[in-house]
Write a structure and sequence with these properties.
Shape: globular
Largest sheet: none
Radius of gyration: 22 Å
Order of helices and strands: HHHHHHHHHH
Structural class: mainly alpha
Distance between the termini: 52 Å
Length: 266
C-alpha cells in the first residue's frame, strides 16, 4: 500500500510542494541569519569606503540605462492609453496628476526593482556563488575574515543607499515621458500637465516612495548575496543559485510593496 501511494501522481505533487516549502523556509532562515550578521557587523567597519563606492557605482550607474528605458517606455504607454480618453471626457487637467502618482507610488520603484534584480541581483548571486563553489569563501575563512561581513556588507550598503537615487531619477523620467506622450496623443499642453503634477503630488507619496526604495534595495542585495552563499555542486549550483536569487527577489519586493500599500494607503 505504501509503495502504491508513493507511485501516485497526487503523492508526487504533494511531495514536490512540501519540498518547495522546505526550501522557502530554509532560504528565509539563511536571509535572516545573514542579514543579522551584516547589521551586527556595521559597527566594526569591515570594509573600506572605496569598496562601498565601487559597489554603489555598480548599482547606480550600470543599472540606470535599462531602468530609465523601462520606466520611460512604461509611462509613455500609459499616457498614450489614458491621456486621449481623459481629454475627451474633459479631465485633461488630471492627466499629469494621474501619471505622477502612478510613477511615484508604484511604477518607478517596481520597475527599477525588476531591472536591478535582473542585472545586479543576478550578478551578485552568480559572483558569490562562483566564489563559494571554487572555495574562495573557504580561503577567506582560513584568513580569519568573516566572509558575510566582508562580502555582503558593501553590497548591502550600496544597494540600500543607491536604490532611492535610481528610483528618483526614474520617476522624473517617467513623468517627463508621460508629458511628451500626452502632448503628442491628445494635444495637452505641457503647462496644464505639469500644473496637474504639482497639484497632485504630496510629501506623503514621496516619503513612502523613498522608504519603499530603501527596503527594496536592502532586500534585493541581501537575498542575492544569501542565495549565492548557499551554492554548491559546481557550475550547476551557480546557475541554480542565480535563478533562486532572481525568483525570491521578485517575490520579496512584491510582498514588501503589498505591506507598504496596506500600511500607508489603506
Amino acid at each position: 500500500m505504501k509503495v502504491y501511494c508513493r507511485a501516485t501522481f497526487t503523492y508526487k505533487i504533494l511531495r514536490a510542494f512540501f519540498k518547495e516549502c522546505e526550501k522557502l523556509i530554509s532560504t528565509l532562515g539563511n536571509v535572516v541569519s545573514y542579514g543579522s550578521d551584516v547589521i551586527k557587523g556595521l559597527k566594526d567597519k569591515p570594509v573600506t569606503f572605496k569598496e562601498i563606492m565601487a559597489q554603489s557605482a555598480r548599482f547606480g550607474v550600470s543599472s540606470l540605462p535599462i531602468t530609465l528605458s523601462i520606466v520611460g517606455m512604461t509611462s509613455v504607454i500609459i499616457a498614450m492609453q489614458v491621456a486621449g480618453e481623459m481629454v475627451k471626457q474633459g479631465a485633461g487637467n488630471y492627466v499629469g496628476m494621474l501619471i505622477a502618482m502612478l510613477m511615484i507610488r508604484e511604477e518607478a520603484v517596481i520597475m527599477a526593482g525588476f531591472a536591478i534584480i535582473s542585472m545586479i541581483g543576478s550578478s551578485l548571486a552568480s559572483e558569490i556563488a562562483t566564489m563559494k563553489v571554487t572555495e574562495q569563501i573557504d580561503a577567506i575563512q582560513v584568513l580569519k575574515v568573516n566572509p558575510v561581513r566582508y562580502l555582503f556588507t558593501p553590497r548591502v550598503i550600496a544597494g540600500t543607499i543607491m536604490m532611492p537615487f535610481v528610483v528618483t531619477i526614474s520617476s522624473l523620467v517617467g513623468i517627463i515621458g508621460g508629458a511628451v506622450a500626452s502632448h503628442v496623443v491628445s494635444g495637452l499642453s505641457y503647462k496644464a500637465y505639469f500644473d496637474s503634477v504639482w497639484f497632485g503630488l504630496n510629501m506623503h507619496d514621496i516619503n513612502v516612495c523613498i522608504g519603499k526604495s530603501l527596503s527594496f534595495g536592502f532586500a534585493i542585495s541581501l537575498i542575492s548575496c544569501s542565495c549565492g552563499m548557499e551554492a554548491h555542486d559546481g557550475a550547476k549550483g551557480v546557475g541554480l543559485a542565480t535563478t533562486k536569487a532572481v525568483v525570491w527577489s521578485f517575490v520579496a519586493i512584491v510582498i514588501l510593496d503589498l505591506i507598504f500599500a496596506a500600511a500607508c494607503f489603506y
